[in-house]
Design brief:
Blueprint lengths: L3 H26 L5 H22 L4 H35 L4 E9 L5 E11 L13 H22 L6 E7 L6 H22 L6 E5 L12 H7 L1 E7 L2 H12 L17 E4 L49 E4 L12 E2 L6 H4 L35 E2 L14 E14 L2 E11 L10 E6 L7 E2 L3 E9 L3 E8 L9 E7 L5 E10 L2 E6 L3 E3 L1
Parallel strand pairs: 3-4
Antiparallel strand pairs: 1-2, 2-5, 3-5, 4-9, 6-7, 8-18, 10-11, 10-19, 11-12, 12-13, 12-14, 14-15, 15-16, 16-17, 17-18
Helix pairs in contact: 1-2, 2-3, 3-4, 4-5
Length: 522
């Protein structure tokens, strides 16, 4: 027979195990159940666990019952809190006429279990800020202040006895205008909203703000509707500064933002490029056949069905449709033996599998769509995450080591008799961010009497980190003088070698792309 002490230990271990496993189950179903269900489930888990603990400690029936009630309240509060906050914020946004997406921020542990660590709201800023201004309209101020009060109220309700939550405001713009101008404007707008949060009662030391400019599009910048979605303010509140820093790192170089380019249109306009017809002129199309609706007399042999053709329909030609070629301004001058670019999508960029994130948040805006190549993109500039009270940058908890092989070397390859080189190429291990600005240089007609080295062209690099690879995207700053507009290079993060690459360059006004695989020099 088990002793009382042994029974107490057994009951305690069982209660803890049951509580942990049940919490994981409830966490997985919170998004599909009502708040009442979440609260009820939390109450059951909490009451069972605390009641069992009291019993294991030798408590009597009354103590066990009291412990169960207290445990039920704790369980309800912990499981229901984030669900309740999301629902309330959604309700406020709807009442104020705000176009907003509100959701929980969840982290995933090593076993795949999800835990809610905060709340995020993406709010479109149409009619809230005048064009090119960081001053809220009176209506915009009223609407956003109501939303801000909800964040402040939730914060006040959970502040006592818990670590201070951290709040981040990120400004986003569409791709109209220059990247630097967009970054400054988005930062000013983010600070405007952050100041509002502070005025309402959130301590300044707990507020951070950032201007991401047009670097993180969630919709197509080539349409009015898409640009409206990209003009937004993002408000995120998480449990602590470490979680905030991890989220900032994940967002800064996430490959999911490759889905949409930052160019309002392709770099130039597309024009049809006629191809030679492969069929003879369609003389039969001069007299279109019209299907008759008359019934076939009985006993008449059936004929093959004739497709219905409208009498007003134009004749159908078998000639090949003209091919659309992307236009690309620039000096050019070196032919890398590439092919015309007929789409701004890229199979190379699409091959990057987004890095597995600490966070489980994937919004509907990030659809499984082809990634944009550099020819449909522009350099992306993001500002630092700054503290509202001190103006200092958010502490980075990552290392400053480089990815294998990507520690500052020059990478080059011979393409169609010419050498293309870029460097120094350096990518940080902890953030996946490019360290420093590279240069592009070209040697034309290698091995001939006409060999010629070009100037070193100043460039800017963006990186997108995947699970096993990183995309290194380089733009020439002065594309009017550079022979190459941009390059995409995919590196293996583990081996430190280039897997593949693409060079985009202008040729008689058309965009051309050549494949290359650079090797590291020195």
């Amino acid at each position: 027979m088990l002793s009382k002490k042994t029974m107490q230990r057994t009951v305690l271990a069982t209660a803890i195990a049951m509580g942990l496993s049940s919490c994981a189950t409830v966490d997985d179903t919170l998004g599909e159940r009502s708040g009442g269900f979440a609260c009820g489930a939390g109450a059951v888990i909490g009451s069972l666990a605390v009641g069992a603990i009291v019993a294991a400690a030798g408590g009597n029936g009354k103590q066990i019952a009291t412990g169960a009630v207290a445990g039920g309240a704790v369980g309800c509060a912990s499981l229901y809190a984030y669900k309740q906050r999301v629902d309330r914020l959604k309700s406020v946004a709807a009442q104020q006429g705000l176009t907003a997406e509100v959701r929980e921020v969840q982290v995933v542990d090593a076993t795949g279990r999800k835990k809610s660590v905060g709340v995020e709201a993406q709010i479109e800023v149409a009619e809230m800020f005048p064009s090119n201004s960081a001053t809220l309209t009176s209506e915009g101020y009223r609407k956003l202040s109501v939303m801000a009060q909800e964040f402040a109220r939730d914060r006040a309700a959970t502040q006592r006895g818990t670590p201070a939550k951290k709040l981040l405001v990120v400004g986003h713009t569409d791709a109209s205008g220059g990247a630097e101008i967009n970054q400054r404007l988005s930062e000013q707008r983010a600070q405007t909203v952050a100041d509002m949060m502070a005025a309402i009662g959130v301590p300044k030391q707990d507020i951070f703000f950032q201007g991401a400019g047009s670097a993180r599009p969630v919709a197509d910048n080539a349409t009015d509707a898409g640009r409206a979605k990209n003009r937004r303010v993002e408000i995120v509140e998480v449990d602590n500064e470490q979680v905030l820093a991890q989220r900032v790192r994940d967002e800064r170089s996430s490959a999911k933002y490759l889905t949409h380019g930052t160019a309002v249109a392709s770099n130039g306009t597309a024009k049809p490029k006629a191809k030679k017809a492969t069929a003879k002129p369609d003389t039969a199309a001069k007299t279109p056949r019209v299907a008759t609706t008359a019934k076939r007399p009985a006993g008449t042999p059936a004929k093959a069905p004739v497709p219905a053709v409208s009498e007003k329909a134009p004749a159908t030609s078998t000639a090949a449709a003209p091919e659309t070629v992307v236009q690309l301004a620039g000096k050019g001058g070196i032919d890398f033996g590439g092919t015309p670019v007929t789409t701004t999508s890229s199979m190379l960029a699409s091959s990057i599998q987004p890095k597995r994130s600490t966070f489980s948040l994937i919004t509907p805006a990030y659809a499984d769509a082809p990634a944009t190549s550099c020819v449909g993109d522009l350099p992306r500039i993001q500002g630092e995450v700054k503290n509202l009270a001190t103006g200092t940058a958010l502490k980075d908890y990552s290392t400053i080591d480089f990815l294998p092989g990507l520690n500052g070397g020059v990478w080059a390859s011979k393409v169609n008799g010419h050498v293309a080189a870029v460097g120094p190429v350096a990518v940080l291990r902890g953030t996946g961010a490019a360290a420093g600005a590279p240069l592009m240089q070209f040697t034309s007609n290698v091995g001939t009497a006409n060999k010629q080295d070009s100037a070193a062209y100043k460039s800017v690099a963006n990186t997108y980190e995947g699970e096993t690879q990183v995309l290194y995207r380089v733009f020439a700053l002065d594309q009017k003088s550079a022979p190459v507009s941009c390059m995409d290079i995919v590196f293996d993060k583990r081996a430190g070698n280039a897997v593949a690459g693409e060079i985009y360059y202008p040729k008689q006004g058309d965009a051309y792309v050549a494949q290359f695989r650079p090797q590291k020099r020195g």
